[in-house]
């Protein structure tokens, strides 16, 4: 659905940001990123956003899973982490579908895979 094949071509060298383009009509539906290089605990943080009218089509689940699959294969990554708002239920469901577990809850929720 989304061009994930070209999403993950470069090693983790810092903040990387991609537009998510729907294959059928080449429309930008959202964006995704690795927020920095892996930290000392060998964790890398992902971020993502999707345009409202493109929600509930599985696009972001596909992208997050592709990012995680690729990142975990890198020699300096043991875990992927993400942060959501406490009321960001759609984002939380995406992370849960991709195998993340809630690690810490406060003003925001931190997730880990």
Automatic annotation (TrEMBL):
Gene Ontology molecular function, alphabetical: acyltransferase activity, transferring groups other than amino-acyl groups
Q: Which InterPro entries match?
A: Acyl_CoA_acyltransferase (IPR016181), GNAT_dom (IPR000182), N-acetyltransferase (IPR051531)
Keyword terms of this UniProt record: Transferase
Which residue range or ranges hold the N-acetyltransferase domain?
A: 1-113
PROSITE patterns referenced in this protein's UniProt entry, alphabetically:
GNAT
- Domain of life according to the entry: Bacteria
User: Which Pfam family, just one, is annotated for this protein?
Assistant: Acetyltransf_3
The family database entries (PANTHER family) matched by this protein are listed as:
ACETYLTRANSFERASE, GNAT FAMILY, PUTATIVE (AFU_ORTHOLOGUE AFUA_3G00765)-RELATED-RELATED
* Name of the protein in its database record: N-acetyltransferase
- Highest lineage ranks of the organism? Bacteria, Bacillati, Bacillota, Clostridia, Lachnospirales
């Amino acid at each position: 659905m989304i061009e994930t094949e070209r999403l993950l071509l470069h090693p983790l060298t810092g903040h990387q940001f991609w537009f998510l383009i729907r294959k059928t009509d080449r429309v930008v539906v959202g964006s995704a990123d690795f927020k920095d290089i892996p930290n000392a605990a060998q964790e890398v943080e992902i971020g993502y956003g999707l345009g409202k009218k493109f929600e509930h089509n599985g696009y972001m689940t596909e992208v997050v899973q592709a990012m995680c699959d690729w990142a975990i294969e890198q020699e300096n990554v043991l875990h992927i982490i993400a942060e959501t708002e406490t009321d960001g239920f759609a984002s939380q469901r995406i992370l849960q579908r991709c195998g993340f577990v809630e690690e810490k809850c406060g003003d925001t929720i931190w997730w880990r895979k």
